[in-house]
Specification:
The complex is a heterodimer of chains A (about 220) and B (about 425). Chain A is mainly α and about 220 residues long. Chain A has one domain (about 1-220). Helix content of chain A is about 75%, strand content about 0%. In chain A, α2 (about 65-80) runs parallel beside α5 and α5 (about 135-160) runs parallel beside α7. Chain B has helices spanning about 1-30, 70-75, 85-90, 105-110, 165-175, 325-335, 360-375, 380-385, 385-395, 400-405; strands at about 40, 45-55, 60-65, 70, 95, 100, 110-115, 130, 145-150, 155, 160-165, 185-190, 200-205, 210-215, 220-225, 235-240, 245-250, 255-260, 265-270, 280-285, 290-295, 300-305, 310-320, 340, 355. In chain B, strands 7-20-21-22-23 form a 5-stranded antiparallel sheet, with no helix packed on it. Chain B has a 4-stranded antiparallel sheet with strand order 1-2-3-4. In chain B, strands 8-9-10-11 form a 4-stranded antiparallel sheet. In chain B, α9 (about 385-395) packs antiparallel against α10. The radius of gyration of chain B is 29 Å and the shape is flat. Classes of the chains: A mainly alpha (about 220), B alpha+beta (about 425).
């Protein structure tokens, strides 16, 4: 049963996954070219100085990428289910609704994590060529809230799509934007260093959020 | 069970989001925009004057009794700051006390130091350029390398991203010879070329001793300063100035402030009381006759004026009601039992800090509970099934009320 669910989810998102991977690799190459260009243009020293003192984030192009990928994967997975009430069929599968929802979301979440692995590894490898450990470390701390934002938006979007009533959807959309926005407020590096774990605590529970709209759907609430 | 839990996670998220945004919206609507006053000491009136900016009235000027004075009177009383106005009006005095008025001399004897509470809480990558302090040219120029302090003073060449062994060895030996104990605790400098000369870095070693490191003709110059190990140093702000009276200001964790003078690093303690460097802005004005030290936050502005030897001449204080104690503030605390602060004026870091309103907040919680029962008016079984809604409101007040009313319980199995 699980195998076929995974396969079905894979079919839904495979193009998005391929496009995400390609986009990631192209952007990584672009960042590499950009660093080289900057170093040619203003010397390596000035480039480091811009990063350290003026807090230029040379990887800022990736800022909203986790957010976009999270939203797109979630939409590809759940919008087709909700249109024409197809989900009703899925709920008739010989598997509990919760296990079904959770295994569907796990597939999307898994691919989101793979894009993160590629992104982080790519950024570390690219950065280590040109920059010392301090800068690479600050990159990792700085992108953490962005990555967390991608995870948050994946489960929030899934919840919003699975929700059968439009009133609740609108409330959830407002709450989702209000929360996710908090993770993208930095104006320089390392600003979430001491608080990121506090933002991560609620996000850990986000996967459980999808049960409530699932339950409401099955109960036929509109 | 899981469905209920799932609902409560959505509710929790709404509580978090509203606890961040609603108090902010509240203050956006009700707060008057008032800036802290700028306090000066007039050498002609021998008294304090201040100006205050307000969104509604613009800049207003006052004497120390709080009486309004005109813009012109204010400027006339402060010839050291508004001499160009006075000159234009043809009333520039030739002599102020012992100081023969001369614009060049005035500029050479004036200095301003401004330190914001945010500067103490600002993330910084610990890589530093060491500027040549005896440059060949008139202007300072940036070096070609950065350094970090580990078990040695490591210089890195950004071009190749590798360590420069020779410089590393030279500087490390120079430090060790002076008794520097690696690894260091803090390093403070002012690495910019937009200043007249460079004083390098002050480095606190593992033994709490403070060292001064400069680069002179490409070679290390390390001085072990007599700054006491017992001072609990929080931060040193190095600020090169042509007056060459002090290298910079030393702030301790106990909120004392010292000047590090050019007289063999002798410290001068500034006579300020009630200063908290985490919450207050610090300004020091130096003119030919006086030193005016101002520390301000929302609640108070304290000013101390001293002579050039830092003997206190006079003190002045303006107390304003902190916003928490105004009626608007009290109402806020009664409505919201707590709030989550993400951005504060005291730090460049993004926070997620819970601030509770204690007793007053209980009013809001009780009101929220009453409203909940009044609005829902359900059967006993309803409350029995969703008893946790009541717990949530009892803990989070209006936020919980909004959340449980918006996200209604389902028809549980």
């Amino acid at each position: 049963m699980y195998k076929s669910i995974i396969y079905k989810e894979w079919i839904k998102i495979r193009w998005a996954v391929v496009v995400s991977f390609v986009a990631l690799i192209i952007t990584l190459l672009y960042v590499q070219l950009e660093i080289r260009h900057y170093i040619e243009l203003m010397t390596a020293f000035t480039n480091w100085l811009y990063i350290i003192q003026r807090k230029m984030l040379y990887y800022e192009i990736f800022k909203y990428l986790p957010l976009i990928i999270g939203t797109v994967i979630s939409m590809l997975q759940f919008v087709p289910e909700m249109s024409k009430n197809r989900m009703r069929l899925s709920y008739h599968l010989p598997i509990s609704e919760k296990k079904l929802l959770l295994s569907m979301a796990s597939v999307g979440f898994f691919f989101l994590l793979i894009t993160y692995v590629i992104l982080v590894t790519g950024l570390i490898l690219t950065s280590y060529i040109y920059y010392p450990t301090e800068i690479v470390l600050s990159l990792l701390i700085t992108i953490l809230p962005w990555l967390l934002g991608g995870i948050a938006i994946y489960f929030l979007t899934s919840t919003i799509i699975l929700e059968p009533s439009w009133t609740y959807r609108i409330v959830l959309i407002i709450i989702a934007i209000a929360f996710t926005r908090l993770l993208f407020m930095e104006s320089g590096y390392n600003e979430y260093q001491y608080s990121i774990w506090k933002y991560a605590i609620p996000v850990v529970f986000f996967p459980l959020m999808i049960f409530f709209p699932g339950h409401r759907f099955r109960k036929g609430i509109n | 069970m899981l469905n209920k839990l799932s609902r409560y996670i959505i509710i929790l998220l709404i509580v978090i989001v509203t606890a961040i945004y609603l108090p902010n919206f509240y203050w956006m609507v009700f707060q008057k925009n008032v800036r802290s006053p700028g306090i000066y000491y007039s050498p002609t009136e021998n008294d304090f004057l201040y100006k205050q900016w307000n969104r509604l009235t613009g800049s207003k000027y006052y004497n120390s009794d709080g009486e309004t004075i005109s813009d012109r009177e204010f400027r006339i009383a402060l010839p050291f700051y508004y001499y160009s106005d006075l000159e234009k009006w043809g009333i520039l005095p030739t002599k102020i006390k012992t100081f023969e008025f001369d614009k060049k001399k005035l500029r050479a004897k004036s200095q301003m130091v401004k330190i914001n509470q945010k500067d103490f809480h600002d993330p910084l990558i610990q890589l530093w350029p060491l500027i040549e302090s005896k440059p060949k040219h008139a202007k300072l120029s940036m070096p070609n390398e950065f350094f970090r302090i580990t078990d040695e003073v490591e210089f890195i060449n950004p071009k190749t991203n590798t360590i420069i062994k020779e410089m590393t060895k030279d500087f490390t030996i120079a430090m060790v010879e002076k008794g520097f104990k690696f690894p260091h605790k803090y390093i403070f400098g002012n690495p910019t070329t937009r200043k007249a000369f460079d004083e390098g870095y002050f480095i606190v070693d593992n033994d709490n001793k403070t060292f001064h490191l400069k680069k002179v003709n490409g070679k290390p110059l390390c001085i072990k300063t007599p700054i006491s190990k017992k001072l609990d140093i929080k931060r040193i702000f190095v600020g090169e100035n042509n007056r060459k009276e002090f290298y910079g200001l030393l702030f301790t964790k106990t909120h004392d402030v010292y000047l590090i003078t050019y007289d063999n690093y002798k410290l001068i303690k500034l006579p300020i009381k009630d200063y908290n460097s985490d919450e207050m802005k610090f300004v020091m004005l130096v003119d030919p006759l006086y030193r005016t030290i101002n520390v301000t936050n929302n609640e108070k502005a304290i000013s101390v004026v001293t002579d050039i030897n830092y003997n206190v001449i006079d003190r002045f204080e303006i107390i304003s009601t902190p916003k928490e104690n105004t009626v608007i503030g009290k109402v806020e605390q009664a409505i919201f039992p707590f709030k989550i602060e993400t951005y504060t004026r005291n730090s460049k870091y993004v926070n997620f800090d819970l601030e509770t309103n204690y007793l007053l907040g209980i009013i809001g919680i009780i009101l929220s509970l009453i409203s909940f029962f009044a609005i829902t008016r359900k059967t006993k079984t309803y409350y029995k099934e969703n008893w946790f809604d009541i717990v949530i409101i009892a803990l989070t007040g209006v936020y919980g009320l909004i959340a449980v009313l918006v996200i209604k319980p389902g028809y549980w199995d």
